[in-house]
Amino acid sequence: MKSKESEYKELFLIEAKDQIEELDKLFVELEKDQSNQDAIDGIFRITHTLKGNAMGLGLDGVSELSHAMEDVMIAIRNKQITLSKKLFEILFRANDKLTQVVRALETNQKVSYLGIKTSLSIFLKNELDKGAPAAPKEEEIDHQEEETTKQEGQAQVMFSDVIQIPVKKMDDLLNEVGQLIIERDRLIAFSQDIGLATAEFERLKRISSNLQYSIMNARMIQVGFLFNKFHRVVRDAAAIEVKNVALVLKGTEIEIDRNVLKVISDSLVHLVRNAVSHGIEPEAKRVENGKPPEGSITLDARYERDRVIIVVKDDGAGIDHEVIRKKIVQKGMVADAVAKDLTKDEVLRYIFESGFSNSDKVNEISGRGVGMDVVKKAVESIGGQVRIETEVGTGTTVNLHVPSSLALKGTLLFDVGGQEYAMALSYTEAVVTIARSEIYKLSGGLMAKYQDEAISIVFLKDILEMKSLDELGQRGSLQKSFELSTDDDDFNVIIVSYMGQTTGVIVDKVLQQKEIIEKPLAKPINKTKLLSGTTILGSGNVCPVIDIAALTDLIHLKVLQSK
């Protein structure tokens, strides 16, 4: 059992992290508009609250540093000192140090904060010594704060309608419900085998499903929770690059699984920083090209079926795909003869390959290419996709297609060689039948027409029966099942789409659509490229989940190598 003291500390940490993030946002707003009295009052209230809460728990580092920041804000609020570039530099550094001090409470690390605290105190003393009237006493500050918070007549004791629950508790609860769903499906399958009416289980299905979705909804948060962190990210990146950049937030009310946001947060930081560094042009160049002097970066979110699309858009210089085409040849990523035949979209996909960079300079912020492979891997790790649109002189838009929840995954079940497999519905475009006569060989692979376009065809059985994926390099390795088929054979083909590449995957039998709870692969098979995880079906059988992103990459690479 946790002690009351540790529970209070845990609640303090949850609130303090949100308060410090809000401070970052308010400091950025105040820096842009130094007459913003609401921002000044907001910063004062937060630092005052942080100080009081930390003192009550004996957290000296937080209370002393927030007290020093509060003293500065009191002087600003009372017009005793004026805002300046130097003061903002100190305040931003103080908030960064405050972040470190708060995080250290979880790790029990020691963080030195006396330096920045002294800087704040000395700066304040020097400014006040210029002749401004003395600051009000501590008792007066508390009185001012009390008067500020009184509205709702007299101050009242109130309880929040929100309770704080650690994410791990929610994850554990959802895992237990997942096991309940598996047992429910197993019980229903067993009842069918012995001839019982499945209608008897309808109420159980409804209650267990409602419970599952209720817990999933409890894990959902608005994307604004993440988007609001980027005011400081853009501000710092623009300061380094000496550029004038505004951040626009849209779709902040869209809800998404907290764990999805956690996975893609670093990716968004990469994208936003790169947009500032390599996308937005210097002010003089923008004016010269007839653009507003201030560049714009937009973070947006919207629903699309069972997915959420996170958008990072800039109105900068855009990406010249012909420049990328030359660079991938120079770097030896593609032969010159192959590069010449690549479409614009195929060329742009190389931006997401490891080792590619389109930056001509090295500083604290990389060019658009550096880290883009990290973005791709992170998004794909949760069954998502990255798509890029760009126009030279107009700007670039990166779309992250991610699931709204990691708890349930919509899949298509199918059979290959007597084993059931699943693949994410988010990659699936259609299920069709293709005659053998419609498939033809091309180099080491197979091709067919789908909606008047040539697409790659692969017998999944050929890949699953390989002892190692290195066998893909052997000529004819992807044509074995085709050679063994007869002229009048028809094939069940699942059409999948990933990163603009459409592929036809031939399976023995398509079974059904099903929402599954996917579990990560256990060691030592967790490094298998072709599988993203497994699930347990109602029959009790283990069902591997095919990683369509990895499969498409493998086939695409094979096609390029054979050209």
UniProtKB/TrEMBL annotation:
Reactions accelerated catalytically: ATP + protein L-histidine = ADP + protein N-phospho-L-histidine
One example GO MF annotation: protein histidine kinase activity
Region entry Disordered, spans: 134-153
Biased composition (Basic and acidic residues): 134-150
Histidine kinase domain mapped to chain residues: 200-406
CheW-like domain location: 408-557
EC number(s) from the headed UniProt entry: 2.7.13.3
Residues recorded as bearing Phosphohistidine in the entry: 48
Keywords for this protein: ATP-binding, Chemotaxis, Kinase, Nucleotide-binding, Phosphoprotein, Transferase, Two-component regulatory system
Domain HPt positions: 1-105
Pfam (any one): HATPase_c
tRNA processing among keywords: no
Function statement: Involved in the transmission of sensory signals from the chemoreceptors to the flagellar motors. CheA is autophosphorylated; it can transfer its phosphate group to either CheB or CheY.
Name of this chain's protein: Chemotaxis protein CheA
Organism for this UniProt entry: Marinoscillum luteum
